[in-house]
Amino acid sequence: MNAQAFTFGRAVRLSILIFGAVIFLAPYIFMISTAGKAQSDIFSSSLSLVPQHWSYVANFTKALTRVSMTTLLWNGVVVCTLIFVLQVIIAIPCAYAMAKLKFRAARLMMVLVMLGLLVPIHATALPLYVAFDRMAVLNSYFALVAPFAISVFGIFLFLQFFRAMPDDLIHAARLDGMSETGIIARVIVPNAWPAITAFAIFSVVAHWNDLYWPLIVVSNQAYATPPLGLLYFRAAEAGDDYGALMAATLIITTPLVAAFLLAQKRFVEGITMTGLKG
What we know:
Blueprint: H1 2-35, H2 39-42, H3 56-65, H4 69-100, H5 106-116, H6 121-135, H7 141-145, H8 152-163, H9 167-175, H10 180-191, H11 193-208, H12 212-217, H13 226-236, H14 242-272
């Protein structure tokens, strides 16, 4: 009886999870379907997911030729990588100092970090734009990267992770003669990879999909990021070739899906871990 109840309960849970997964995957499935349809299929009265006229080759050819898709993807990789590297370089020492070092301003810094979480990029967009315009750095990687080099969310995430690390580990490193910089590089970072991976997912997804800031500081297509490139593509297609537009969207979103699938184990560890693994 207990075995039957366990099997029934497991079947119910799996059914609920599968149903939820289908709901969340429905837009992506629809995008894959539309990317292979001709215009006549897209605007037909039927809602079949299977294309009647397979146009994957034609749509993907348009997506790859109407705009420089390789340039868009490369810009996305460069911008997201630079932002993530700078955020980690700045956030880890700040979080380590607040979590493990004792100084008077620690509590004040924590308050400032929490307040920083409440400030959206929209509030600072105008002064940043004016400053970058006067510095003549619009249409550059610097303009795309600089406003996000410091991540208060990253500092907060690493702070919570470092607080769970045993102090004995750090005391032992100090007894071995390590400096604070050496402790960060040789003790903190190797044990913080789950948190770094989790933060990488948040950072890359946020800035890969960001349209607001690139739309403000970029007018040269040579520096366009993937979402901004979709706007250029839609303008080039007069906005009505939805098959090619879905193909372009699929190309741009695939790297994010692949990155998440490869890093999902570390991502879950970084979110759920409260201490060091034994």
